[in-house]
Design brief:
The complex is a heterodimer of chains A (about 290) and B (about 350). Chain A has about 290 residues and is mainly alpha-helical. Chain A is built from twelve helices and two strands; from the N terminus they run αββααααααααααα. In chain A, a hairpin with a 3-residue loop joins strand 1 and strand 2. The longest helix of chain A has about 35 residues. The two termini of chain A are about 15 Å apart. With about 350 residues, chain B is of the alpha+beta class. Chain B is elongated, with a radius of gyration of 24 Å. The chains are: A mainly alpha (about 290), B alpha+beta (about 350).
Chain lengths: ~290, ~350
């Protein structure tokens, strides 16, 4: 992107205004990252010692030990499943909020994103209560006589997915409503007047035009899901091990900081790959939707 | 009525929920095959609602719409086979020009060879052959409008509907596109309905004009009839400029006009009593000098003069009343404000209006 006015000299004051932000980023982001990168190539000595050196031992352990590969796999899979389900649930909601002509539109939008005001720890405990073996859902099913054995909805992958989908829903709704701006009732009506049924209007016009918003929502939720720590820990009951929980265990319980740092680098690489994939897809969707 | 009407609208009514006053209140219209109908009126008169009911985008509260003898009132929009051009053009931003035009053909499962032929043909007709692979966002407003027209025409619509098709464009472009749309419409013989608030557009393009006011059609007829013989005060003042006289119509057919005295009028069927009468400014004769007033002429003074190239418009004070006059500027001297003049007109040009 180039500015239409051509290159302009920035006034020195503008650079000065950048300073606080840049300083904060260097102090709170770049330096810790460099530190993590440095730590990832140190050697772990049994008993909790760390030898300052440059070695790829931790990374070698991650790529050769099936356990870590499985953890990484679970993490990516969790991200994909949560992103897909959240987008599916959020799409009709976002569509409704964009289209409604109700005078309560503002209030409804507020309500849709209000759950963000409650910390994800509190919401996860809420789900523990609802989905546990003695929880709301299972008590209800037992009372109805539907099932004798409790439905396993917590302390497993399913429970983590359910809780994460609900927790990330507002983010997806926000990302989507802001991405649905190109949607125009007249364009859909034009398609209908040319002979498109409701389903054809959706697949040929509505969906292509809303795809950029969907992709943004999906990426956001994917990134949040693969870095989630509290919910997999509490809802997973120790049975769902993802990179975030494994990093915590390595760093605080085993004191294997080089391995924890290496796992962090792996997580960052996954971020990077998702980001690159997103941008490639987004460029295509964007080009289509805006007609550039 | 048993006639050759292609489009027949009977008692069409739309009352939106939560409102008492209908947006469209019982409209009757009919149109022969190949004709172009203009729904003309100010914003909020119900013209767009009427068009959308014909298209199937708005469900009528009551009434019937027939196209080619078939009742389509309850047929869903995508099964009506009509073509519609929207005010905002409503092109598909994710498709290029040719794909936009081919949209309706694909839905009709027309084979790729014929599809390509018909798209090429219609793009040629709207002079956009070189733009087939362009993205619609790269086109100018006038080009987008022609893509919208091509997209609607390519499916051989049972009716072509145009919702203020030119209002988003600048004045010069409007005029050239007006002619182009009319030519394309006549060449294809597509029966068409278009909505406009611009009287010039309606008069110059349409075979029939329906003047709408507050949800009702106040006058329906060919353009020259609408202009020369407006039925109501609203129609007279909305279409073109008009001098309006109020007064009492006597049994002898002479109008006792307020402030002007007795003036003869064209023969009328309107009952004697309080009436309004209309005189078009270009039918007012203006003669310089008022020393020897002719019979039936009124002395007056030029109040203001406006020169617009081919026309000169005067506002003339006639014993405290303003009379607008307009004449061709060819070979005429321009009268300065303050000039004493004499105004006159033919009795046959003063038309008594209903209501």
């Amino acid at each position: 992107m180039t500015s239409p006015a051509g290159p302009r000299r920035r006034p020195p004051a503008a650079l000065g205004l950048l300073l606080p932000g840049v300083a904060a980023l260097i102090f709170a982001y770049v330096l810790p990252m460099v530190w993590v990168g440095r730590m990832s190539v140190n050697r772990y000595v049994d008993g909790g010692g760390i030898e300052q050196t440059i070695t790829g031992e931790s990374f070698a352990e991650i790529v050769t030990d099936p356990y870590y590969l499985q953890v990484a796999g679970t993490t990516v899979w969790l991200g994909v499943v949560v992103a897909a389900l959240t987008v599916l649930v959020a799409y009709p909601l976002a569509m409704f909020l964009v289209r409604t002509e109700s005078r309560f539109k503002g209030l409804l939008t507020m309500l849709a994103i209000a759950p963000m005001l409650v910390s994800s720890v509190a919401r996860t405990y809420g789900w523990v209560i609802v989905l546990g073996n003695q929880g709301l859902v299972n008590s209800f099913l037992r009372a109805l006589g539907v099932s004798e054995r409790p439905l396993q909805l917590s302390n497993n992958f399913t429970g983590v997915v359910i809780a994460l989908v609900q927790i990330f829903l507002p983010y997806a709704v926000l990302a989507m409503t802001s991405g649905f701006g190109r949607l125009d009732r007249n364009v859909e009506q034009a398609a209908a007047s040319l002979g498109a049924s409701r389903r054809q209007v959706f697949t040929r016009v509505t969906l292509p035009l809303t795809l950029p918003g969907v992709l943004t929502g999906a990426l956001l939720v994917f990134v949040l899901a693969i870095s989630a720590y509290v919910t997999p820990r509490l809802m997973g009951g120790g049975r769902v091990v993802v990179l975030a929980t494994e990093i915590y265990d390595q760093a605080t319980n085993r004191l294997n900081w080089p391995l924890a740092a290496s796992l962090s680098v792996v997580l960052i690489v996954i971020f990077g790959v998702a980001m690159a994939g997103y941008q490639a897809l987004q460029r295509r969707a964007e080009r289509k939707a805006s007609g550039q | 009525m048993a006639d050759d009407s292609y489009l027949r609208i009977h008692g069409l009514n739309k009352t939106y929920p939560g409102t008492r006053k209908p947006a469209v209140a019982g409209i009757d219209l009919s149109l022969a095959q190949g004709e172009l109908l203009a729904l003309l009126g100010p914003s909020g008169c119900g013209k767009t609602t009427t068009l959308r009911m014909i298209a199937g985008l708005v469900e009528p509260t009551a009434g019937r719409i027939e196209v080619a003898g078939r009742d389509v009132t309850r047929v869903p929009v995508h099964k009506r086979g009509m073509g519609m051009v929207f005010q905002s053009f409503a092109l598909f931003p994710h498709l290029d020009v040719a794909e936009n035009v081919a949209f309706g053909l694909r839905l009709r499962r027309i084979g790729s060879a014929e599809r390509r032929r018909r798209v090429a043909e219609v793009l040629e007709r709207v002079e956009l052959s070189d733009f087939a692979r362009r993205r619609v966002a790269q086109l100018s407003g006038g080009q987008q409008q022609r893509v919208a027209l091509a997209r609607a025409l390519v499916v051989d619509p049972t009716l072509l509907l145009l919702d203020e098709p030119l209002s988003a464009l600048d004045a010069k472009l409007r005029e050239s596109l007006r002619t182009q749309i009319r030519e394309i419409q006549q060449a294809s013989g597509t029966t068409s309905v278009f909505v406009t608030h611009d009287q010039d557009e309606a008069l110059s393009m349409a075979d029939k004009v329906a003047v709408m006011h507050e949800g009702a059609v106040v006058q329906f007829g060919p353009p020259e009839e609408i202009y020369q013989a407006p039925a109501t005060v609203f129609a007279a003042t909305f279409i073109g400029r008009a001098n309006l006289f109020t007064g009492t119509l006597g049994q002898d057919g002479v109008l006792d006009a307020d402030g002007l005295g007795r003036i003869p009028v064209a023969p009328t069927t309107v009952a004697p009593g309080k009436v309004s009468a209309m005189l078009r400014p270009q039918l007012v004769h203006v003669r310089e000098g008022a020393d020897t007033p002719q019979d039936g002429a009124f002395p007056g003074t030029v109040v203001s003069t406006s020169y617009t190239g081919d026309l000169i418009s005067y506002r003339i004070d006639v014993s405290g009343r303003t009379v607008d006059a307009e004449r061709s500027s060819a070979g005429a001297t321009i009268l300065a404000p303050g000039t004493p003049v004499e105004v006159s007109w033919d009795a046959a040009d003063v038309r008594v209006l209903e209501g």
